[in-house]
Amino acid sequence: MKGKFLKYLITLTFVLSIFNVTIKAEEAHACYPAYKCISRSHLPSSYKLTYQNKDRSKGIYVGGTVVGGAIGLIPGLTYPALLGSIAYGGFELTKGYLSYKTYMKKNPSSGKTGIIKIVHYKEKNFKGKTKTTYSEW
């Protein structure tokens, strides 16, 4: 049964290749990063909360593991990669900011679209010392 199906599939492929059946591919239009697709008319005039992450620790564990695992695929770097990923994760958990909130608003200058404000919190659940960063686009 499998043999007959495979023969029919191969025959169908050859027959379709004779007639040059093609599927028209259309170009996909996407924005990266996604916030660049937002128009000025959809942005609020004052800061509005758009995203929040109250606990980055799981992401830090996964990120350290992925980076360490990728480097560990290189022969001879298995143990240094393991130690490096442990050090990276430990540094982020002890010295890094463990939660953040992201805000967006319309940029008051006419040449720009918007402003992103990110408030980083030292501890989980938006507590502790804060650091604020801004970026315009």
What is the structure about, briefly put?
The chain has 137 residues and is α+β, with helices and mostly antiparallel strands. The chain has helices at residues 2-18, 57-72, 78-95, and strands at residues 48-53, 99-106, 114-123, 127-136. The chain has 3 helices and 4 strands; from the N terminus they run αβααβββ.
Helices and strands in order, then pairings?
Elements: H1 2-18, E1 48-53, H2 57-72, H3 78-95, E2 99-106, E3 114-123, E4 127-136
Antiparallel strand pairs: 1-2, 2-3, 3-4
Description:
The protein has 137 residues and is of the alpha+beta class. Helix content is 37%, strand content 25%. It has helices at residues 2-18, 57-72, 78-95; strands at 48-53, 99-106, 114-123, 127-136. It has a four-stranded antiparallel β-sheet, with no helix packed on it. A hairpin with a 7-residue loop joins strand 2 and strand 3 (114-123). Helix 2 (57-72) packs antiparallel against helix 3. The chain is flat, with a radius of gyration of 25 Å. It starts with a helix and ends with a strand. The model has no long low-confidence stretch (mean pLDDT 83).
